[in-house]
Amino acid sequence: MYFLKEYRENGNDAGSKARIDCEKILLDNNIKSIDFGLGGKKRYIKSFFRRIKESKKISNDVLVFQYPFNEKYFNNLNKNILELKNKNVKLIAIIHDIVALRPVKGSISLSEEIDILNSYDILISHNIYMTQLLRNKGVTTNIVELEIFDYLNDKKKNDFTIDGDFKSVYFAGNLDRKKSEFLYKDEFKNVDFNLILFGPNYNSNIKNNKIIYKGVFSPEDLSNEFKEGFGLIWDGESASTCAGYTGQYLRYNNPHKTSLYISSGLPIIIWEKAALADFVEENDIGFKIKSLNDISEILDKTTLEQYTKFKDNTKKIQEKLLNGYFLSNALNKSIMMLK
User: Fold this and answer.
1) Is residue 137 within 8 Å of 8, Cβ to Cβ?
2) pLDDT one-digit tens code per residue, 89-129
3) Other CB atoms within 10 Å distance of the CB of residue 88
């Protein structure tokens, strides 16, 4: 069994942490890597003969890869992978994004993407809602749900203790106005609870001493910056609902920051219609909200006893995320399907 290695020059974290963690978990599951020259376009073009050589290693076997591919060689790489089916190689795709649901320049249509996904033997989708969407749009191949992304972190220190203000709210991500527009809405700029922000591109013109900007940290180091409180899952252009492309995408995807928060020991506050809202509710690790305006009232009513319960339940999931449980479980289910 093999997986397609994704290249990062000089070991720098050029790819997303989610993809890096997936590779580590695949290795931990004794899955060997093959190198098709993934990375920049130049490296991919120069690796033509490498791909021929590497392809010879695998026949009558299974290849796991992470989807989608770099748009600069998307079609070419997909062709290379599909050619392996002629050697009786089964294909398992770990989905990170549905490209057509996040329209960008040069994006493929949803019908084109469905055809691509149907050419693989098994898809590992984020959750049941992504699976239902894919089924409704015409995906007929086998699907396994991941549930939530794992989050590996060797730098995670001992868990924080609940000895202060547990009613703070953390938000980590790209804080650019275009990406996190809700942060700059009038109704959210006047929050009366501590809102602690991490990430690049913050517009510090907001004048509210309850909004605290902490800067930019690596994914591993960021985990140790969190204290008592909740991690916020919200996106889009509105404070009253998750609107726009990025907001509505929460209905289907697993935001990686959810895994960041949980792996750090933080309970969650999440939009009630987000795909992961059910996961939060079923595991009793936080609150679902309709609007960001609901947060103040919810925090006011939250007791130390209730927060401690959330925290204890979060710790159970935290241990699984830090050990690669969810992808390992999805891989095992996928392998059983192929037998």
Assistant:
1) no
2) 999 999 999 998 876 656 788 999 999 999 999 999 999 99
3) 10
- Go through the domains of the chain in sequence order and give each one's CATH number: 2-150+324-338 (3.40.50.2000), 169-322 (3.40.50.2000)
pTM over cut 0.90: yes
**Model pLDDT for residues 273-300, shown as the tens digit of each residue:** 999 999 999 999 999 999 999 999 999 9
Residue pair 224/116 in contact by the 8 Å Cβ criterion: no
Give one DSSP letter per residue of 127-155, joined into a string: SHHHHHHHHHTT--SEEEE--S-----TT
In the chain, beta strands by DSSP E: 2-4, 32-34, 62-67, 90-95, 122-125, 142-145, 169-172, 195-198, 211-213, 230-233, 268-271, 286-289
> In this predicted model, what pLDDT tens digit does every residue of 154-180 receive, in sequence order?
876 666 667 667 999 999 999 998 889
Residue 13 clears pLDDT 60, i.e. is over it? no
Task: Give Cα separations from 205 to 53, 185, 187, 209, 279 (angstroms).
Answer: 55, 12, 15, 12, 36
300: exposed, middle or buried (Cβ count in 10 Å: 0-12, 13-18, 19+): exposed
Give the integer Cα–Cα distance in Å for 156 and 322: 9
Residue 225 structure tokens: 């910056």
CA distance 103 to 31: 33
- Rounded to the nearest 5°, which phi and psi values hold at 238? -130, 150
3 state DSSP class of 125:
strand
User: Whose CA is closest to 152, among 262, 3, 234?
Assistant: 262
Q: Are 220 and 153 in contact (CB under 8 A)?
A: yes
Coil, helix or strand at residue 329? helix
Place of tokens 């804080």: 175
For the chain, the first-to-last Cα distance in angstroms comes to 13
Place of tokens 């006011």: 300
